[in-house]
Structure formats: C-alpha cells, structure tokens
Amino acid sequence: MTDLFPGVGAGSLLHSQLLADDRSTRVGAIYRIDYGEAIVLTHDKWKFDAGGIPQFSFLLATAQDINTPEVDDDEVLLLRVEGTAPLSMETDLHAVREESLRSALSSNDNPAPSSVLDVDLDPFTRNRVSFTGLRCRVLGTFYEDDVDGRKVLEFGADVDNFYATSTYRVLKPVGEGLSTVASYLKPTGRPQERVRIGAVRYSATRRRAKTSNQADAAVEVNIHDFIGNKTALLGMTRMGKSNTAKTIIARTFVISERQRAAAGNPIGQLIFDPQGEYANPNTQDGTEIAAIGANHVRIFKFGADGSQPHVKPLNINFFSENQIDAVQGLISEALSAEGSGYVKDFAGTSYADVAGDRSASTHAQRARMVLYGALMRAGFTVPQNFRARINMSGALQQKVSAELGRIPFTQAGQTVNFATVGAADLEAVVEKVIQLREGGDQDATDFTKDIRWKSVEPIFTTQSGGRSVRGWRNLNPLRPFHSPLTQNDPAIEIYDELVQGRIVIVDLHVGAESVTKALSEDITRRLLSRQTEVFTSGSEPPHIQVMLEEAHNLFSSDRYKDDLDVWVKLAKEASKLNLGMTYATQEVSGVAHQVKANTANWVVAHLNNTTEVNELAKFYDFGSFKDAIIASEDRGYVRLKTLSSPYIVPVQIDRYNVALVNEARAAAGDPPLTPQPGP
C-alpha cells in the first residue's frame, strides 16, 4: 500500500485545519470520481449525525487514514454538492421499496398515508435503501506547501491525480473547519487583512443547521479586495445590497484609519445616495454610516443651512467666481438639447480667470458679466451685495453711463479701467454695450470681440446668427441647483474631503431627478479630472472608493459605446486612477458586459427571473446556483465570490449595526456610541 503513495507523509496542517474531529464529520465515501465530478455514497444515519447535507454543501474527500499515517496522501479534495446521483443497485432497491408499499396498500384495511409509510421492512433491506448518491463538483485540492520556511495551506483549482475510489473518505466540514474552507484566501500579491462579513448559509431552510450548531461558521474576506477594484452588488430591491455596502464601507474606513495611524495615505469614500439610506438611520440597522462620526463623515445635501458643520449644501452659487467651472458644466448640459452653434462654443470655452494671463482673465470677467445677466433674466436669486468685476476702458464706461443717465460703475483698482457693477445695473450695462457695438462704436466692438463673450451673448439676448434661440430660457430648470449662500464649489469641496480620507455622502433623495442626475455627473466628472491631473503629473492618485446605485442606468451597453459619457469614463479609467467602484443593480443584463468582465468581487442576492440569472451564469460557476438564486428570497442571503476567494461561497451577510459603527469609531480613536434608552 505504501508504494501507492510514494514520498507522501502525514499532513499535520491539513489535519489540524480541516480533518480534525472537531472540524469535520464523516458522511460517506467516494463511489466514482473523475477530474471534474465525484459521486459520493452516503447513508441516512451519516446525514442525520452530520446535521444534514444541504445542496451546495462543501465536502472534503481524503485518502488519509488517521490510523495508518504512513500511507497518507497529503491532499484533500474540496467538493460541492450539486444534486443527487443514481447508484448501480438503486433500481433494484426502489423495486423492493415499491413492492413493500404495494403490499401495504393491498393488505391493509386502512390505506391511510401513515399505514403505508409505516410499512415494515426487514433491517437488511431498510439499511440498503438508506444509501444514496450525491453528485458533487470537484472544486479543487487543498495541500500543504513550504513558503518562506513555514507550512501553509494552499489550494489548487483542479485535481492533479486521483486514486482508486475506495480509498477516499468523505467528510463534511463543520465549525472552524467550515470557516477555514469558506474563508480561504489565495495569494494575490495584495495586502491581506481578514474581516468577517457573515456566516456560511447553504439553504433557505436552516432548522438543522441551527439545531446542530452549524449556523454561524464565520466567513472572512480580504477587505483589500474591495479597495481599488470593482464590486458588483446584484439582487432585487430590499434583498440586502445596501446592508452589504454599508458593511464594506465601515470595514474600509477601519483600514483607512489604520493606514493613517501608520503614516500612510487614507482612503476616501464617495457615496451617491439616491434614497437617503446611507445618510439617515433606518429601521433595518438602527443606525447609519453618518454615526461613524461627524469628524469622519460629510453629508452634502440640498437645502443644508450650515447649522451642522458636517452637513454641507449641495447647491451651487451660480454667481460665485470660484464655482464657474461647475456652473459652466451644468449650463452646457442644459443647453445641449439646442442645436445652435453657440452651444458648442459655450461648452468648449473656459470662463475662469487664468493665473499669469491678464488678457484671458479680462475676457473671462467680461463673459461672466454677460452670463450673470442671463441668470438674472432666468430668475436666479442674486447674492446679497453681489458685484461683478469688470475691466472696461474709461472711455467705454463714460459712453455707457451717458446712455443710462447714471454711473453704474464703482472703481475697484488703481486705474479707472478696473471697476465693479452691482446687480441692479448689470443687465442694463450689458444691453448698452451691445447697443453701442451694433451702432458701430469701436470701443464696444473691441470689448465684445473675444469668443468668450460671443459664446455667452446668445444666452443673454436669445439671438444667434440673426435668428431666435431659447437662450436664458434653457436655464430655468437649473434654479434648484442654485443657492446664493454657497461659498465654495461643492465638487471641489467633496474632492478635498475625499483626499483627507473622509466618507462623503451625496444625499440625492431630495430634488428633481434631472437635477440630481446632472449634479452627480458633474461631481464625478470633476473627480475624474482631478485624479487624472495627479496621474498625468507622474504622482500616485489618492485611493478613493465610489458607491453607485441603479448601475443598469449608468453602464448600459448603449452608453458604454460613448467614450465621453462620464460613467463610462469612470468604469474604464477607474483602475489606473486608483478609483474603486461598487455598483448595485437588480438588472444584471442591463450592465455592459465589459463592466462585468472587469468586476473583481460579486455579491449576488435573490434575482427573480431566468434572464438575469442566465446572464450571471456567464461568470465563474454562478450557473450552478441559478435555481436557488431565483427560489431564495431571504434578505442578506448571497453567493459571494471575491478576488482572493477561489470559489463561490453561500453567505448570510451580517447586519450592519452599532457594533460595527463602534469598531470604525475605535479605529479613529473615538469613544463608542452608547445605546439610547427606550421611551
């Protein structure tokens, strides 16, 4: 027998981690095996003693014999139960069972179900019919290896050999043994830090798992798998996707704070929150992401009044010079439906001052004055004491003043050319400049000759190329974006907060869909721009995680063809820019194949139709779980595949709660939250 396993000795690590009595229990033997499938012979008594063998159970097959270690094989096959399989004598045994039932029906005056089912079989026959076959997929092989002078447990996703099937004992891993299997992480070259995400859950029915104390085998993941990579949260609404996202966010924050404490760079997290479920407490969790602490979480929302320092306004001040880039982006979007040439010119021109370029800054100021006039015509509230800066020759100032019959200019520099114009006079000043130019005045012609002015003037006048255009009327839907109280561009503030390692929640549950859509796109566009600037300068961009809901609306196959689409750019460029992305959807088929093909982590909850599960079946071996994914509607019950895990694990995700919040707070050095007393 020893010649059958040349050079192989007892594997202590395999035994201590997987095969020890407290980590696995015998359930049968291999009846037939090949490189991809094994048929396991088991018995009703073994199944009962093991607490049941649900579909998708992990099983271990080993040629080791603990009584004769000198002939052991240092490999353990990992199997997953896929269904049942017929045994060679099963037909005969079924015939015996059928005949017994027929006899009971024929001879018993009371053919009630209890009389039939309680029919007596002789002990020999009863034992024979208690054997069944389990059809199992061979997932791979556990074995020991020497790495840097120490023994480690390795896993290969195939089988390099198998022996006569009678030598294989089959065991069901339980307790810490099951946790070892479910939490196994393959080496990836990435940092590794294990965190618990849930417990193994094979089936919707958990009675036997609970009564046999097998319902809480921990599943741990490498949290670094989620940082800088794409993660898919797939499942119907209310199936636990946001709970999983919150868990990942809190765990990532812990890692970020540890990196900060070790003089490393923290990790920023940007959450687009269309339902307000990340910013606000809900009945599911009893807490929220914001509970991690006001020093670490920033919430941007419409209507914020500044009374809470960690809650900031999401609105833009359209009259603020330092927010002109955001203003231009939103107005360009609003104008895009109009096909006039001025629209393209407006979108392609900068209206911000240029450091060191006095001429460009002068023309930008003049164009902004026209734009402010258009905003006033569209009904935008003007900030208190607002004045527009302008560089206008003294001669033109005198001509405009003469036309108005008053002096609207206030000197703002050492020369008369530098002036300001108040809100009450601004529209009139623009109108008079245009009238003077149309009348042939050379000073007014020179004042308005730059492309910046020409691209904005049609918005103010609603005239372009001798025909009428909608101009400022296109700006009416943008009024909800505007707040005269906002001091800084929210997109820039958001990016600065992310660089500092904070969690930023963009609360979009208040506001018209068109408004929130345009705003979230503008924030993402600015994020990509900033990260690209750092990347192209030769520096390492900061690590930032982005959380997106309703991904089927953002990454559809049709949109993926448009390289200028901001969400497509995010999906394509995220990795090189150190942007991790978590996207959630109930429509797997609605997300472009290219996005899914580059997704590292998969969290799959209940889906309710074959179209979606068939699309999912194209990736890894999710096809094996198709029927179960449709049938099981339990919240938080998922099939999990991470970058470091070599196989899919069925998991009940832990609930995000105050304990996890306190873990995050502890990592930041903050005191724990105390439960609030009930009413």
How would you describe what is shown here?
With 679 residues, this protein is an alpha/beta fold. Helix 8 (241-261) packs parallel to helix 22 (658-667), helix 10 (341-347) packs across helix 15 and helix 16 packs across helix 17 (513-536). It has 22 helices and 24 strands. It has three domains: 2-185, no CATH class; 221-315 and 486-667, P-loop containing nucleotide triphosphate hydrolases (Rossmann fold), CATH 3.40.50.300; 321-479, no CATH class. Helices cover 34% and strands 21% of the residues.
Average predicted local confidence, pLDDT: 85
The total domain count is: 3
The CATH architecture classification of the largest domain is 3-Layer(aba) Sandwich
CATH superfamily of the largest domain: P-loop containing nucleotide triphosphate hydrolases
Q: Count of DSSP helices? A: 22
What characterizes the major β-sheet? 12 strands, mixed
The parts where pLDDT drops under 50 for at least 5 residues are 1-10
Cα shape: elongated
Compute the separation of the termini in Å. Answer: 73 Å
Oligomer: single chain
CATH topology of the largest domain: Rossmann fold
Rounded Rg: 34 Å
Helix content: 25-40%
The count of strands amounts to 24
